[in-house]
Write a structure and sequence with these properties.
The chain has about 240 residues and is an alpha/beta fold. Helix content is about 45%, strand content about 15%. The chain starts with 16 loop residues before the first strand and ends with a helix.
């Protein structure tokens, strides 16, 4: 089969233990990516050399611990996820072998072919998260799409999510009536037209149709998700 074969998942990092080997610039980048998505994540850093930024983070975050030492296989015994962020290919290979021996998933920085999982580009608007993957083919495209989504999606979308959540719990009637009402409410996400879009530069104007399609897609996705939740609720 052709195309992206990755299966997107959202991990509860606050309930898992992530071990990162390496605390230089690459280790800092991986750690920052994790903490940006879950500041309550439990993370252990194992490294001989630890940069000042990582040390400062550890001082502020009680669930981030540092082990100023050389890596040993036993460092992975309590891990759920492993990230190899060293510039030593021999050491990275040993980390992979040790992790797989424990049936753990491992990410190797800048080595897509050696990874069991990737840290993708993520757009976050409150409770809304969109993960972007190019199957490791082009981080530049993923970064550009992240920028586009971040600029196109209004911050107020999170308010809509919270309101839809509260509204969902107030609906009565049969399933079809609930879906109809939710369709009416969520349709506001697709109501923006080119005439109501604020003036943009010539460079940005080509993205207007994309934004409209984006709003429609989000509206449909939210409606479908809520419909599924109601089905589960009705047939419990």
């Amino acid at each position: 089969m052709e195309g992206n074969q990755l299966f997107p998942v959202f991990l509860k990092l606050n309930q898992l233990h992530t071990v990162i080997i390496g605390a230089g610039p690459v280790g800092l980048e991986k750690l920052t990516a994790i903490l940006n998505q879950s500041w309550q994540a439990k993370v252990t850093i194992v490294a001989e050399d630890i940069c000042a930024e990582v040390t400062e983070m550890a001082a502020r975050l009680p669930r981030l611990s540092l082990q100023h030492k050389s890596y040993e296989a036993g460092d992975l015994l309590t891990a759920d996820l492993v990230i190899a962020a060293t510039n030593n290919n021999v050491l990275n290979a040993a980390i992979i072998d040790d992790a797989h021996a424990l049936k753990l998933l491992v990410n190797v920085a800048d080595k897509p072919d050696l990874c069991d999982f990737y840290l993708g580009s993520i757009v976050k608007k409150g409770d809304l998260k969109i993960a972007i993957s190019t199957n490791g083919k082009s981080p530049t495209i993923a970064k550009r799409l992240k920028q586009l989504f971040s600029e196109s999606l209004p911050d107020e979308l999170d308010i809509t999510l919270q309101q839809m959540s509260r509204f969902r719990n107030t609906l009565e009637g049969d399933f079809s009536a609930k879906v109809k009402k939710l369709n009416e409410v969520s349709a506001v996400l697709a109501e923006q037209s080119p005439l109501t879009v604020a003036p943009v530069s010539q460079q940005q104007s080509s993205f207007i149709p994309f934004r409209l399609l984006l709003y429609i897609t989000i509206g449909l996705a939210i409606t479908l998700l809520i419909a599924i939740l109601f089905i589960i609720k009705l047939y419990k």
